[in-house]
What does this fold into?
Amino acid sequence: MFSTIIDAWSLFAVPRPSGGTFASGHYDDGARVLHYRLFVPDNANGQPMPLVVMLHGCNQDATDFARGTGMNALAEEYGCLVLYPEQSCSAHWNRCWNWYDSAHQRRDEGEPALIAGLTRRIMADHAVDARRVAVAGLSSGGAMAVILGRTYPDLFSAVGSHSGLAHGSATSSAGAMQAMRDGPDPATSATTAPHAGLPVIVFHGDADAMVNRENSNDVVRQSVDGHAERRHADIAIVEETGCAGGRKFTRRIHREHTGSVLAEQWTVHGSGHAWSGGNLYGSYTDTQGPKASEEMLRFFMNHPASSAARRSGSAPPARPAPTAARHPPRTA
It folds into this structure.
């Protein structure tokens, strides 16, 4: 069953641009139901538009995440759809995406399959540019966005991870807490099978006390290694520093010899576990610093999927199933 209704009350609750609609709906794949919010800009005219899938963090919901990131206002300006899947309390008591559970780390299984199914349904019901379907998220949402990019490279064109973790960083609740606290375990990361590497943009505050910023280094490493293995390409790294929104930052850009950007990594100095350049209307936001939403949207628009990438990424290899986690960790 699939339905979309306008939630009139939330139209007033969320700071909105001058136009556009912010609808509520749910997607039922026959076994599970996933609620969501969908922003459609006023300038939607039947022509294919980019789609950005935004995954909230723990202790958040779709409306809160839309408030904090301000992505709807940018979508009105850029002319794109924004989909906010919403984790249920029944799936995780703190509304975290189950990135650390092996049952939710593979293609056609668990939450990746559910989110991919919802994304395809939105694409079927709206005019979407299939070459520009990106996925991004914060913390547990950032970790799930990385998993989706690596397991569905035929569906998504680019990935944005803010304060997230790499695919396979943990396969249990204890492992999740350790990865969040100490950074990635090389032995655990090494067990993840090769996957196609999509272009990725990463943000992380160097004062993050919730998720160790070394995890974002691992997100970039996974993506860049995926490109290098498939293309046997040399990678050049350019580093630059600057200041935006009252915070200093370091940006590292990883390029192929052709000039194509494989990864863009932003370290925001002095920022904690919060969306950089966000809005106080939402939780887990830092109003200072470079605007992560603007930079991610700019990155996504500049990295459409190629037909070759679609063909090569259609069937990522499966990995053996480790023991599933039993006790959900408290992540944000």
Remarks:
- The two ends are 30 Å apart (CA to CA).
